[in-house]
Amino acid sequence: MTRLIFLGPPGAGKGTQAKILADNLAIPHISTGDILRSAMAAQTTLGQKAQSYYDKGDLVPDDLLHDLIGERLSQSDAQKGWILDGFPRKLSQASFLEELLQELSQQCDCALNLEVPDEVLIIRLLGRGRQDDNKDTIRRRLEVYRQETEPLIVFYGERSLLKTVNGDQSPEEVTESVKQAVDSCKPSCS
Ligand code: ADP
What we know:
Layout: E1 2-7, H1 14-25, E2 29-31, H2 32-41, H3 45-56, H4 62-74, E3 81-85, H5 91-103, E4 110-115, H6 118-128, H7 135-149, H8 151-158, E5 162-166, H9 171-183
Parallel strand pairs: 1-3, 1-4, 2-3, 4-5
Bound molecules: adenosine-5'-diphosphate.
């Protein structure tokens, strides 16, 4: 049973690594970015509400994400473990998750923080060319990361759940470092 949170700035490689690990462990990879992008493409109510925040590189309001995560972690495939990628992204979301997991009698094993220097992130994001990967939005997303998401490193550090991984290596080397970090996490008993 593995339950993991991926932390790290935009462009750190969370999505790539979370997907590989989820496939290896046969557990769901829950990416709020992916969920929001499909909701926006399908123009669902969630997608329409999220669009303007997403386009600016701002965080989408908590209530939209909280409902979604609450439902997703209650689904049957999530009972055998999960990897969260892109959630939580701010302290209010981390507190929400902590309470939710208590209600669901689940425990997070580990928060993996993928570290990558800013100059490398910017090159990666500009090269990726997703719709929200233009210069202004990238600047805003990095700013939001520093202000809102980086404090989660302390939050999970205080709970002894934090593992830091060097994300400035080849994808294969990062995968190897992620595996080692996960192996060193204490598995939960449940
Ligand atoms: P990246 O990994 O490059 O940061 P994501 O695909 O995870 O990109 O997220 C892209 C955008 O989706 C964010 O800039 C934000 O607008 C929205 N988003 C994703 N997750 C969250 C979240 N937990 N809370 C609020 N907004 C979110």
